[in-house]
Amino acid sequence: MSPRKSVEKELSKEQILNAARNLFSAKGFQEVSMRDIAKELGCSHGAIYYHFKNKIELFNQLLQAGFNLLDSIMENIVSDEHSLKDILLGFVDFGFKYPHHYEIMFITKEDAFLLHSAPLDSYKRFEDEVMKFNVISSEVYFIFVSLHGFVSYHLRSEQFLDRGMTIAEQFVDFLIKNQQI
């Protein structure tokens, strides 16, 4: 058995968030307790409570951090000259590079997620950027759902993972072509 960390300061919020993200992604929010997170980190559950009031607060910080990361990546794309394809591939690339973030941000069905404003705020920024390419709001939604389905499928299936962004580019080209018909 590994020795427990004796001082809460040794354990950073970031370490806790990373462990919780991985556990929530693998097992689901309801199946993970603060004790499970502590066990994963080799510390007491009190050390987790030192940083977070409860599991909902920890989960909300994970959501916010994930959407902040996605928004930052998308902001980097749109701050330079860019195409619709760049935006769509940026979203897919985020899902492929950060699968545990993506799982928590877009696949979870937890009530805590439904009460958080970050998903809607992030989607609104995505919608605003895509609409600059003369795409109407309902079509932005269809594009987003298509991208989400693509990423979710590929995170769950190993069939195409070796093709990664190559197949993503083909898929995005398909979406753009069909949007313009």
Automatic annotation (TrEMBL):
<dbReference type="GO" id="GO:0045892">
    <property type="term" value="P:negative regulation of DNA-templated transcription"/>
</dbReference>
<keyword id="KW-0804">Transcription</keyword>
<feature type="DNA-binding region" description="H-T-H motif">
    <location>
        <begin position="33"/>
        <end position="52"/>
    </location>
</feature>
<keyword id="KW-0678">Repressor</keyword>
<protein>
    <recommendedName>
        <fullName>HTH tetR-type domain-containing protein</fullName>
    </recommendedName>
</protein>
<dbReference type="InterPro" id="IPR001647">
    <property type="entry name" value="HTH_TetR"/>
</dbReference>
<dbReference type="GO" id="GO:0003677">
    <property type="term" value="F:DNA binding"/>
</dbReference>
<feature type="domain" description="HTH tetR-type">
    <location>
        <begin position="10"/>
        <end position="70"/>
    </location>
</feature>
<dbReference type="Pfam" id="PF00440">
    <property type="entry name" value="TetR_N"/>
</dbReference>
<keyword id="KW-0238">DNA-binding</keyword>
<keyword id="KW-0805">Transcription regulation</keyword>
<dbReference type="InterPro" id="IPR050624">
    <property type="entry name" value="HTH-type_Tx_Regulator"/>
</dbReference>
<dbReference type="InterPro" id="IPR009057">
    <property type="entry name" value="Homeodomain-like_sf"/>
</dbReference>
